[in-house]
Amino acid sequence: MQAESFFSENIRKALKNDPPGEWMPAVPHECIRLHSGYPDPALVPYEQLKKAASDLLEEERDLPLHYLGSPRINALKKQIQDRLSARGIHSSDDELMISSGACQAIDLIARILIDDKTAVAIESPSYMEALEIFKNYTPHIMSIPSDEDGLQTDQLESMLEERKRKGLVLPRLLYTIPAFQNPAGTTMSAKRRTHVLQLAETYDFLILEDDAYGELGFTDFPPPLKAMDQDHRVLHVGSLSKIAAPGMRIGWITGASKFIRALSWFKKDLDHPFSQTVTAVYLQQTDFNERLAVIRDTYRTKCAVLISALTQYVPESVSWHVPKGGYFVWIKVPGADTSALLTQALSQGVSFVPGKYFFLDPQDGTEFLRLSFSYADKNSIVKGVQSLGSILKQNVRS
Amino acid sequence: MQAESFFSENIRKALKNDPPGEWMPAVPHECIRLHSGYPDPALVPYEQLKKAASDLLEEERDLPLHYLGSPRINALKKQIQDRLSARGIHSSDDELMISSGACQAIDLIARILIDDKTAVAIESPSYMEALEIFKNYTPHIMSIPSDEDGLQTDQLESMLEERKRKGLVLPRLLYTIPAFQNPAGTTMSAKRRTHVLQLAETYDFLILEDDAYGELGFTDFPPPLKAMDQDHRVLHVGSLSKIAAPGMRIGWITGASKFIRALSWFKKDLDHPFSQTVTAVYLQQTDFNERLAVIRDTYRTKCAVLISALTQYVPESVSWHVPKGGYFVWIKVPGADTSALLTQALSQGVSFVPGKYFFLDPQDGTEFLRLSFSYADKNSIVKGVQSLGSILKQNVRS
């Protein structure tokens, strides 16, 4: 029996274009993990979640362990609505759905909107997992450059104008991470936010706003695109992964009710009553604004430690963007092939993510690498950058 | 903005054919819930899961709360492999994946195999959620009748022969619940099991074996189809929902590694580290064979209570199948419209599922209804059947 002959046509194409598993080499356990997009272990509220799970099952017994869980699932929805509301996003019950993290949310949105005749626009560089998801649905992906102010909306406009003039397929969806971007760390300026919403109306596309880092601004947070979305063109995706615990898999989508209804219909893993109700109890038992202040303080400090180590230990030709929030510092190493450097770095006890994974055309990422200040502790960050610095000194043009 | 214009073509078709939300009317809280496919509340191990969650987080702290969780995720896989192995299914690590319950497993399998040019065969009646999933992918669904011995494989063969002769599209996948079927409660005979595997080879299709009730035989369990699957044509789907707690959302798929690899690639909710590791600890701390013996005893007794109440309280013309395992009794009420009867039943404090939901053509289910002995307690089962009996007496031909 030939397994391949049973795959549906699109799946066969997707598997052919993108053989699964092309990803980072294994990072040895003893390495300083500057590649990791994990939260700081000390900020993962395991004691509180333990208490929440225990209190929940003590009080509600089998209830949260059935298919539909307990009414506390609605409490989680309400808590998310309240948090969004404080940021200018007002969503009714039928405009919000819980997902298993942001990844499932992005996949579901692609599922209902995108097929192989449809196009998606992404900012470049972009979150690799989203890139992989879109590749599963369509070969038509357009990459729009970004700079210190995020997505270059004038470039997006030129692209749209040109394609319209030539009668080419226009994107149905733009995927963007406007706040504290992964991997670039940049934040879209207010002017560009207004511009991109205008373009969505003019050229009739939707925006998938991936807001996974949106509340992780060191000093302030810009209002999300969704808060400015008069024409209901934004599907806003959020997650507790970066501010609570990724292992709980709690994310959400807010948008026009017609989209939410379709998304719910195609979400066939049912819900996750246990995770969701434990999380609801955790949020009930926590002053989350206070908690977020601690989280932001921690990452601000760790980011400063990373930046200061970079200043001290890497060659002058290496440059980076200083982020105002999030988890990542995006680094340019002129003339380097960061994939090759990674092998050396791993053997010397430090990891990073080579730039190539964040681009539609991997070549565009050769000189770049992503460092994370979220997971490693401050001493490790300094030691890691020291090691990295000495590798870079041997490898870059000065 | 017109939301509909953004949906991809297939999704637009699926939404048009099957408007979401066509499902059971709300069941009042005080009703005796004979419609429910929930496990018995007394059999949901909430105390043990509470202890498991607590022990896990005490010992491993933040580890199981990160994206990849702790090594205990592999322990869960190993535990499932061991249980499958005891039933004659030997799967290596790359032949097994964990899913969020059986529903996500069925959806993922449909996702990689089925598109609108591909056909699926199902036994009739069948699990409504699977039916809804397949309808999301293809309009080509073929319904094969079943009787007391399960799927009528001779009818399947005739259908295949005829379609082949006429040059019509043949099914790529057969969906079946061979053990203690939902809703019919029937079990496929040994002879038919051999036959269906032969047909799969001859007519080159795959079999999705939904084994959600496979370990819930009251006296013995037949070996799964997968245990007889020489030609690697069976994708075996299992779940802990019916024997532990559905709210943990633990299911799995075993099959040829090429399928498992593709399924993993398209499963974009990542994994569920917290649920999975808590479950792994629960299984570690439990003698699960002993546990299963208790569960089977309980359901055997409750089934007997239901059957005895039926014998006592419903009119003679009403007939049913006595199941040898599982959760359900499938009932024929000659001349009745069970959908109409439900309204009356709900107002008199008892629920059931009308037959129409389990058929491709709802008309075929008009005279049928599904009762469940899993959720309600024994006294409630008797009271519920009494109420149902008096409603039926007023409504059936005698």
From TrEMBL, chains A, B:
Endpoints of the signal sequence: none
Necessary cofactors: pyridoxal 5'-phosphate
Keyword line: Aminotransferase, Pyridoxal phosphate, Transferase
Pfam families linked: Aminotran_1_2
Domain Aminotransferase class I/classII large: from-to ranges: 34-377
Source superkingdom: Bacteria
GO molecular-function term, one example from the UniProt record: pyridoxal phosphate binding
Annotated SUPFAM superfamilies: PLP-dependent transferases
Biological-process GO terms, alphabetical: alpha-amino acid metabolic process
Name assigned to this protein: Aminotransferase
Organism: Bacillus nakamurai
Lineage start: Bacteria, Bacillati, Bacillota, Bacilli, Bacillales
